[in-house]
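Whether sequence alone determines local backbone shape is best considered at the level of individual chains. For completeness, the protein is quoted in full, as a sequence line and a line of structure tokens:
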Amino acid sequence: MEIDTTKPVMVTGATGYVAGRLMQRLLEEGLTVHAAVRNPDDNEKLKYLNAIAEKTPGVIRYFQADLLQPGSYAEAMDGCSVVFHTASPFTTDVRDPQKELIEPAQFGTRNVLETVNEIDSVRRVVLTSSCAAIYGDNADLEQTPNGVFTEDIWNTSSSLDHQAYSYSKTLAEQEAWKIVNAQNRWDLVTINPSLVVGAGINPFATSESFNILRQFGNGAMKPGVPNIGIGLVDVREVAEAHLRAAFTPQANGRYIVSGHNTTFPEMADALKPRFGNDYPLPKRTLPKWLVWLTGPMVNKAMTRPFVARNVDKPFRADNSRSRKELGIEYRPMEESVNEFFRQLVDHGLIRK
């Protein structure tokens, strides 16, 4: 991997959870990073990035941009060789999935990539997609050729009414491939992580990952957790995958970035040796019939179709492309979840 530091790169959603660690890696490599944010004058929100910039050889330049405003990324993108498009909402607690998930993900991707078409300096786009664009429910695993999710598979089970977040990521990535295939000047690489965990540069970032870990420690899941299979990956590996996807010439297509095939009970067990005495971690695995009966009353995302298609069903993904072609080495799951939990404790987001 050879990194050309003579040309700047651009990052959308630069203050986000994954983007924060990506910004750190880019700055460590001495790059000039054009950070596209909603408000370049919000020093409070930018302080975590500024603190990293002070300690690294790279430089940050801030630009104002809006996902849904056509052309608003043109100034930030001008002269850049690589565009990292990370900006997209990750939440399941929405009132209007179309407005809060679909439009920012799909229309935002279209807005950014249509601007790429107009900026001659851009040679590659690295898109933060998701394993959610590969599958919607764990039950989808039963339809895969070898009982494992690979980059060749697309999510066909999600919709606006079922797994709307997964649907938004699928539409956004499909939009990206449609746009790149209509031209031949720049290429596209997508990073498809599973659930991202691990300490971020901003302990107060807004991501569903933070909500899940908080519920493990604040008593919300004290009675128990459902046996749901899930993929897990450290945020630092996701950032490294973005960097290598940008500057490895032969990188191409989609890359599943997922370190571990695990479950919610296994995540809880990983936390118990260090935190089990002081925090109300989940004590048992809930039977499926009980989750089906009470889930919708506890969590509106835990619908009965979701329970039927995910509880007591495994997640298995093949991460071999990311290991072989990008050289990603995955740290132990226990390290990632414990460091993440400790960060939330240290900043008062989980209390004894």
Observations:
- The chain is about 40% helix and 15% strand.
- Residues 9-346 form a domain with the Rossmann fold fold (CATH 3.40.50.720).
